[in-house]
């Protein structure tokens, strides 16, 4: 079938298998060309199919020659209907991993559930014995609590007062003002339940109890802080409260890992176009201006460059460099004073008319469609593609 992008707001409802495969191969080639690293050998990635999670799996496998298990919740293909992008990404990753002689298996299902945890633990026990790295990169907007069965939904709202600022519709390029009403009722509690650290801790506890963690085990979860510009709707909003909880959880997890000399870390990453970030008002305009500024400085990174640098320079050092709050700051290039000052200057100038010149909206759009396998260089989108693609190592 000929597969075209169909968008609804900040998501694409179709995905292109050949485009997703090309994206994955490009990331693998980047890692291979950047050099081998002394890193983990047996890795579990929760949220392994897109964005930072996928980049972590690629870096683990192709930079460190690690065996990897990926857990994710993706839609499989059916006749005449494409799979979700993460399905095609994983199929391509596993194909390349197996070609390179690397162990790679996957589990598709709700990572919040006890069932998927038990299934994953059984696979680790059978195939790997113990793991030395757990990457927690889950970015779901909803969570059904495994103990109570209650379904929680996260929100993206400021706390206390309404927030008004500029945003851009990245499909049309229109810069307009948006007002976001403040959180009410249980918004904060629900967002923390979905996006905080409870599930991360549950994974570590289950692995530890089953004796599946090696000596000197490490685990890392990904967070974001961002600039003053986005603070009211992000870091000081409902999602920021969840990130605070996630970051505090790292200390609690480290305490539970003392007997195996293990450690939990938070890596604060750079603002990038992901399925999650596209949903946050104001962020697309900020990223457009940030991309323009960082590309001009030669410091722009995508997911794979970020995670490779995290692996190479931070996470596996004898002394892991952290900020005063104990966080790894791989967002350091984004948050550099000259970058932020320039973005603030451009923000004041940003209008529908000026943005094509002062921002990189085209880069934003391209990255957005790339997430779903579209607008990828070298892919013939006029050619018939087979939407039915299997994941070679999928554990049924």
Set down the secondary structure blueprint:
Layout: E1 7-8, E2 11-12, H1 17-34, E3 42-46, H2 51-64, E4 67-72, H3 85-99, E5 104-108, H4 114-128, E6 131-136, E7 142-144, E8 151-153, E9 163-169, E10 174-180, H5 187-195, H6 198-209, E11 213-223, H7 238-256, E12 263-268, H8 283-297, H9 303-315, E13 328-329, H10 337-349, H11 355-358, H12 361-371
Parallel strand pairs: 3-4, 3-6, 4-5, 6-11, 11-12, 12-13
Antiparallel strand pairs: 1-2, 7-8, 9-10
Q: What is the percentage of strand-forming residues?
A: 15-25%
Calculate Rg over CA atoms: 20 Å
Helix content: 25-40%
Q: What is the count of DSSP helices, taking H or I runs of 4+ residues? A: 12
Our measurement of the CA-to-CA distance between the termini, rounded to an integer number of angstroms, reads 27 Å
Low-pLDDT residue spans: none
CATH structural architecture:
3-Layer(aba) Sandwich
- H/E series: EEHEHEHEHEEEEEHHEHEHHEHHH
Global outline? globular
Strand order of the largest sheet: 5-4-3-6-11-12-13
What is the domain tally?
1
Largest sheet: 7 strands, parallel
CATH superfamily: NAD(P)-binding Rossmann-like Domain
The averaged pLDDT comes out at 96
CATH top level is Alpha Beta
Class from secondary-structure proportions: alpha/beta
Q: Could you please say which CATH topology applies here?
A: Rossmann fold
Number of E-type strands? 13
